[in-house]
Amino acid sequence: MRGRLEHPMTRAVPALALALTLVAGGFAAWAGQDWYGAAHDEQAAYAAQRDAALSAGEQAVQNLNTLDHRELKRGLDLWESSTTGELHEQLASGRDAFTAQVKEAKTVSTARVLSGAVTELDDRAGRARVLVALRVTVKAADGAKSDKDSRMLGELTRTDGRWKLSALGQAPVGGTSTG
Question: CA–CA separation, 125 vs 157, rounded Å?
């Protein structure tokens, strides 16, 4: 009885399938390791917190420099929701007196952030400092407008996973004179 002849491709197909499986498995392992490394990269997490602090700081500084006498409650509520700690307490306790002043003056102020930077970040403690340059336009009751550029220093505290202003003040402009 004659033996059955095998076609040369019969052996090649399983070998090729095995080789492709090994290559695909190697690629999957490499991609998984790369993904895991990126997902657990401390520098990436730190950069994300820095960006979140900057974004929140810029928005909060803009909020605290924008107020329309015709929508006072909404504006002051936004001020309070943008702040925490002592700054929040100061705004809340002085709200009635400030409301009377703004209603009498009938002003509309709008702020626009020109640039900002995180100057300090302690992610573990949940504290950050930002420097924000902005242009504030004030429209008086008589329709006169004035623009003022300023730089503000803000301190942020992470509260319930969100960055909020805990202090705000003017940044010094220019050098100091000696002598």
Answer: 9
128-154 tens-digit pLDDT? 999 999 999 999 999 999 999 999 999
* pTM of the model as a whole: 0.74
Question: What is the number of other CB atoms lying within 10 angstroms of the CB of residue 12?
Answer: 10
- Percent with pLDDT over 90 in the chain: 69
Alpha-carbon distance of 94 to 83, in angstroms, equals 14
Instruction: Report the candidate in 153, 174, 173 with the shortest Cα–Cα distance to residue 165.
Output: 153
- Which helix or strand (DSSP H or E) is residue 142 part of? none
Sign of the CA dihedral with 30 first, then 31, 35, and 36 last: negative
CB 26 within 8 A of CB 133: no
* Most distant CA pair in the chain, distance: 116
**Residue 166 DSSP label:** E
The whole-angstrom separation of Cα 65 and Cα 139 is 13
Q: Enter the tokens of residue 44.
A: 């990436």
